[in-house]
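Lab notebook: predicted structure, single chain.

Context: the supervisor wants predicted structures on file for every construct in the current expression panel, including those that have not yet been purified. This is the next one on the list. No modifications to the sequence; it matches the entry in the shared construct table.
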Amino acid sequence: MAQSPSKRGKNEPEPRPIIIKKIIADGHGGHHGGAWKVAYADFVTAMMAFFLLMWILGATTEKQRKGIADYFTPTMVQLKEKSAGSNGLFGGESIIDKDSYPHRAAQTGSKSITIPKDASGGDKEGGAALRAKERVAFQKLKAILEKKMASTPGMAGMAKNVRFMETREGLRIDLVDQADFAMFKSGTDQLSDKARELMRQVAEVTDLADNAVIVRGHTDAMPYSKGRTVNNWTLSAARAEATRRALSDFGVPNSRFARIEGVADREPYVPGDPYDPRNRRMSITLAWSSDLGVGSGAGGDAPRQPVDLMAGAGANDPTAMPAAAMAQLAAKKH
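Prediction complete. Output recorded below exactly as produced.
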């Protein structure tokens, strides 16, 4: 017969009581902290600033945008004040530095003014801004010369002999020989009639700007016979001088010329073929104003009013010939 559950055996342990623990979980209505609010506020602020910037770019002119940029540009002049041994053993400077360590007993430190090379703002534009402005002006000069050659009888076919290239020195105009055309008579520095007419047109366009002019003569690698005193070096230099003289005769002031040089066959136009006729050329470079000083008006030449090549010539044709340039060219013809 089964034993009653209320009775336990002699050796059976006393049963443990059953404890039921009821856990009531907290509700999810509380917040998780305020970090997300800060991130969201930063996001909204950034978006507001972005759309404000887009609105300013669309509602202002180029001149107004430049004024706004100049307003927020940091001060160009940075004052550097470091005393000997400050902020560490030497403050990040060497004991032999020229401007950061005292040079005499009464001196406790040095001050130096540092001006960034291409910083914009202030009374004068920086080098980068000036170069960008001149690059646009050079494009206008290129368009003016192309238009003049196309409208001059007998010169339209010479367009293939004129090459434009922007270099580290400035805008370079290459007047290149072809197999069927040579600017100079063979072995001499005498310009042909067509070459002189081409020089006249280049001089008239060059005279619209005030940039310094660099003339460089080039030849091919064809050698001279032994015993002759003429070689490619003397020939290229003589042709460079003949080009300078022609430009000067057609109105370019002598004070504008910065360098006249002949480089023989050392800078070929076609590197793969040193005997190619295109290697015989004259390079006329309008130098960047930031690299070479403008010489117009110096050396006894009377100063003149330069044509503003940055002036607009119409909303639909920003590189067309400005009205002032057209008037100056028309005055020269009469």
